[in-house]
Amino acid sequence: MSKASSPLTATLWAIGAVILTSTPLFAQTAMAAPKVDAADTAWMLGATGLVLMMTIPGLALFYAGMVRKKNILATMAQCMAATFLVSLLWAFYGYSLSFTGDGAYIGTLDRLFLGGMSLATISPLAKTIPENLFMMYQMTFAVITVALVAGSVADRMRFSAFLLFCAFWLTLVYVPIAHWIWGGGFLGAYGVVDFAGGLVVHVNAGVAGLVAAYVVGSRRGYGSENLSPHDLTLAVVGTGLLWVGWFGFNGGSALGANSRAAMAIVSTHLAACAGAITWMALEWYLRRKPSVLGMISGAVAGLGTITPASGFVMPMQAVMIGLIAGVVCFWACTWLKIKLGYDDSLDVFGVHGIGGVTGSLLAGVLATGALSATPELPGGVSGLFEGNPHLLWAQIFGVAVTALWSGALTFVILKVISIFVPLRVGHEDEVMGLDVSQHGEALQ
Which of these, 361, 351, 363, 347, lies nearest to 327 by C-alpha position? Predict the structure, then answer.
């Protein structure tokens, strides 16, 4: 190349580079690179704190208020134990097996002990927040799911057996189901949708609670003695913390500070209100008095039932879901519970299990593509009412797989544990109360 042509060539290359970088294709390619967004990160930090608050102190107070005085500390201890034990196991291997790789049935060990995760690492599933924050957010879901199961066997399960149950159930039940639906597994690939945990959390924990109630057996005096709640004021406070925490639970599942998060929070609140007023009205009509226990049960039923659909429906559809939740969960906690003869102490199956199933199916019916009408809201889906019957079928399939896996593995886990550690305390210890017999403490 001659010296005279060098400046001309350089100029032409520069002009070409400017034109190339100005094209839409180049701009889209540049924008596709993951980058931490400050607003999304700030919102997800707050949402993570809200969801963790749902277990401690939210669920702990909610459950403690509905057991007898002699078992309050033991019930809170189970929520505490689920929090610290599940958190450690999640960081050790749970997150890696749930959210890495693209296997149909289980993830990889790429993030074993959080290896390979740095300040600059971004998860491919949450492209605008640090991966360590995404890991922590998902950890809070695992924590509350395991803790929920404790409500089914309150007043009678041995603490050592519960610790073993937490470890094995997280590993063999929660982790696979989370991967199947949220981590790139076969259910998600089939088209199953679960915006914030109707299947992964509520159906999963509800079915496990039902099986645990049957395996561990009924409380002493069930059906013949007064087993009514000791202090509903604690339960009301716990309900309030759960309600507010659910904004992080459902709103945070948008994984960013966007309009879908806002819509999910609106839907969550309205569904809770509709569930509470429906349960209250039914109780008022059938029993002549609206109980405080019924009001808070209806609110939690609405919250659990809207969870899988919260990011896919409009506000008035959320109200409809809440109304249906109040009716269906009231029926499950009264008629169905008596008909099947199980002692689910705090109605985990009736509220969370039945609510999760109902909400997951209603997502298949009511999901609206209107929530994906703008570039800001990708990932919207259309349900049966918008001409997509496949979504309802996928939801039925997802419910069936989740319930079967959770039920079967919970049964096996409890039976294996019982070989080494008795599942429930002895007769005298149960009469004395688990606070004293399991922890050597008692409320004055």
Answer: 351
Instruction: Decide: residue 10, CB within 10 A, 0-12 exposed, 13-18 middle, 19+ buried.
Output: exposed
Amino acid at 92: F
Distance CA 263, CA 355 (A): 20
Six-digit token string for 260 = 């879908």
Task: Match 């291997």 to its residue by tokens.
Answer: 93
129: which DSSP letter?
S
Give the pair of three-digit tokens for residue 444: 């004055």
Q: What token pair was written down for 411?
A: 């049964």
Give the pLDDT confidence of 161-199 residue by residue, as tens digits: 999 999 999 999 999 999 999 999 999 999 999 999 999
Helix (H, G, I), strand (E, B) or coil at 342: coil
Residues 6 or more apart in contact with residue 177 via CB below 8 angstroms: 199, 200, 204, 402, 405, 406
Smallest Cα–Cα separation from 203: which of 440, 3, 421, 403? 403
Token digits for 155? 């007043």
List C-alpha distances in Å: 80 to 76, 105, 155, 185, 261.
Answer: 6, 30, 16, 30, 29
Query: Mean pLDDT over residues 299-323, rounded?
Result: 97
Helix then strand count (H, E) for the chain reads 21, 0
pTM given for the model:
0.91
Task: Provide the token pair at 239.
Answer: 């309900």
Q: Which two tokens stand for residue 144?
A: 């509350």
In angstroms, rounded to a whole number, what is the distance separating the alpha carbons of residues 173 and 182?
14
Confirm if 44 and 133 have CB atoms less than 8 A apart: yes
Alpha-carbon gap, residue 301 to 323, rounded angstroms: 10
Tell whether the model's pLDDT for residue 321 goes beyond 80: yes
241 vs 186: CA distance, rounded Å? 34
- Contact 100/116 with Cβ under 8 angstroms? no
